[in-house]
Amino acid sequence: MDSSDTFSFYLSDNSGNTIWEIPGQSSNSNGFSNSITSLTWGIDPTDSSNDLPGGTSLTTGTTYNWQISVQDSNGNQAQRNMYFIP
């Protein structure tokens, strides 16, 4: 991994409604660096205003989709999607 690699994170419900994304729509960032090794619920490390609506929580038994994407300095991209049910 190179320090110029950028990552993005996306979480949606089973209807495709965005619950959380990093970088958020109000962020001026293209993503977060590989120096960020964990995420705290509701905190966007790329934007201090954050993008998670207050009081948002996951519902037990509901299917959610999360996606992680990476882009390197050469423009190569990869992404992984997974479903989970809390």
What does this structure look like?
This protein has one domain. Strands 2-1-3-4 form a four-stranded antiparallel beta sheet, with no helix packed on it. The mean pLDDT is 83. The chain contains no helices and four strands. The chain has strands at residues 6-13, 18-22, 64-71, 77-84.
Layout of helices and strands:
Layout: E1 6-13, E2 18-22, E3 64-71, E4 77-84
Major sheet description: 4 strands, antiparallel
Which percent band covers the strand fraction?
25-35%
Q: How is the largest sheet built, in terms of strand order?
A: 2-1-3-4
Q: What's the number of domains?
A: 1
Using DSSP, what is the number of strands? 4
Characteristic terms for this protein:
single chain; 86 residues; mainly beta; 4 strands; 0% helix; globular
Task: Write a compact overview of the structure shown.
This protein has 86 residues and is mainly β. The chain has one domain (6-84). It contains no helices and 4 strands.
